[in-house]
Amino acid sequence: MVLPVVLGFTAAFLFAASAALQRRAVLHAAHSDPARKAATHRLPVLWLFRRLLRQRVWLLGWITNLCGFCSQAAALHFGSVALVQPLLVTQLLFALPMASAAVRQWPSLRDWLSAGAISGGVALFLSAERAAPLEGAADRSRLLLAVGVAAVTVIALLQLAQRRGPLAYSALIAASAGICYAMSAAMIKVTTDSLLTRGVAATALDWPGYLIAVTTFSGLVLGHQAYGSGSLSVAVAVMSIVNPAASFALGLLAFDVTPVAGPGPLAAVAVSGVLLAVGAFGLAHSPAVRLETRTTAKQGVYPHPG
């Protein structure tokens, strides 16, 4: 029991560190664009991606991310999904001081309580409802429908984010990234199953394999945009909430996942919702988060239409 818990917390720390490093790389890339030409576009980070790829700190962020995946895989090898998955939500608790360090303001007690409430709410939801199992074979027609719904939702969120304040903009972009990562996980599941049952040739011609690249790259771009346009803490919090929620919805739609019924699970979901609402309200009104958001919006990739 001890080893998977330690590995799970290690993975959470590495994922948070990776997000902080990627945010730093985005800010450096934005600084290399003094005329702020990229900021006139809806997703400025796209226009800075070539500069971003040349930065050592960005490469370090991805090496850290890879180490996080290795720690997560090891944790899942020694422990169950039900044990490890909720532990990964604690990356928000690691991201909070990393984000605050950028503005040299230590998180207040309210910030810690808000982050703890969000982490606890997501962990409770994952434990009670098995929010992202994606078990069994997917129904291909319904999976395709889910892809269409996800694409429309992401486009709608991107449109809704335009001309919003930095905090709301970053949160909406982070929600889009969370959906993309959930879809990417589903495509990996389907492609892996296809590889084992149908072979390499059939899998190479199968559409889910190509969607892995599309959804992963989309999540990568949107994640960088969220980190570099507002608050890192809020972006990580929103992704931590949206990713499992989208995965659970996908499981219901395309993987025949049956939610657990009964007073216990329903009560857990209700408590989870209260914790998420309280935590989100606390972070949104945190002076440290607002200072971080204003600083990032000025120095980063928050769009300023010209």
TrEMBL record:
<feature type="transmembrane region" description="Helical">
    <location>
        <begin position="209"/>
        <end position="227"/>
    </location>
</feature>
<feature type="transmembrane region" description="Helical">
    <location>
        <begin position="56"/>
        <end position="75"/>
    </location>
</feature>
<feature type="signal peptide">
    <location>
        <begin position="1"/>
        <end position="19"/>
    </location>
</feature>
<feature type="transmembrane region" description="Helical">
    <location>
        <begin position="112"/>
        <end position="131"/>
    </location>
</feature>
<dbReference type="InterPro" id="IPR037185">
    <property type="entry name" value="EmrE-like"/>
</dbReference>
<protein>
    <recommendedName>
        <fullName>Magnesium transporter NIPA</fullName>
    </recommendedName>
</protein>
<feature type="transmembrane region" description="Helical">
    <location>
        <begin position="87"/>
        <end position="106"/>
    </location>
</feature>
<feature type="transmembrane region" description="Helical">
    <location>
        <begin position="233"/>
        <end position="254"/>
    </location>
</feature>
<feature type="transmembrane region" description="Helical">
    <location>
        <begin position="143"/>
        <end position="161"/>
    </location>
</feature>
<keyword id="KW-0732">Signal</keyword>
<feature type="transmembrane region" description="Helical">
    <location>
        <begin position="266"/>
        <end position="284"/>
    </location>
</feature>
<keyword id="KW-1133">Transmembrane helix</keyword>
<feature type="transmembrane region" description="Helical">
    <location>
        <begin position="167"/>
        <end position="188"/>
    </location>
</feature>
<keyword id="KW-0472">Membrane</keyword>
<keyword id="KW-0812">Transmembrane</keyword>
